[in-house]
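Hey all, sorry for the wall of text incoming. These are the two entities for the joint prediction.
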Amino acid sequence: MVSRELLEACRKGDRGAFEELVERTRGQVYTLAYRLVGDRHDAEDVAQDAYLRVYRGLSGFREDARFETWLYRVVTNAAFTHLKRRGRFGAVMTEDQEAAVEVVEQGAGPVQQTIDRDEVKRALEDLPESLRTVVVLRDVYGLSLREIGQEMGISEGAAKVRLHRARKKMKDKLWTTT
Amino acid sequence: MDDDLSYDDPADLQLRATMAALKDDLESPPAGYEDRLWAELERVLWWRAPIRRLAHDRRAQVTAASVGGAVIAAVAIGMLWRRSARRTAVA
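and here's what came out:
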């Protein structure tokens, strides 16, 4: 996706190199931002903020890490900052309440119909931010619960509870509407 | 242990696969997104680029050190000259 040479050129202040980096990654950055904040215009603000953070933070990026992973973390941080600023984050439950929730997974029941991608996207968009962010980072981008907890400033247990709740809500919505 | 989605249940398998596929399913940004993004980067970042470039350029660093050294030397010589001129005037 982004070569080491391109990153080195960006670090040295090569404007053309940074433009190329933005060109190569803007689709992924916008998509992750949109999946996390659930609004097209907010996603645009998050993407802009993320690129400013990338430019300022490139000197601290370790060569042995994967750039894509680091970029996703930067976008995630920018999205969380945005959501916190808007007061739309973590409002579903306090961490203590979440820890007290008994996670009981109910069987989804027999599936009569198949679901398509657009239905899953709509189900994701309908989730509250605090649940959507967890399920997107875990099930779409493959972050561990520990990493998600660190990014969101919550415990691993709280992230796990949110993940269960998000998946359950999605399954309820998908299997009842299909 | 976070994996409460089953590998046996067809519903869970479907959800798992569809969610994973979303990573490569890029969303279309609103019209004018790219123009606004470039304008913002232009406004906030690009004035810093020459400074950053100088900071990474070895020849620029040597030049800056030479110029800085020359300025310090000139100031020191000037102060010595001024002091000796004052002494001469007092005498």
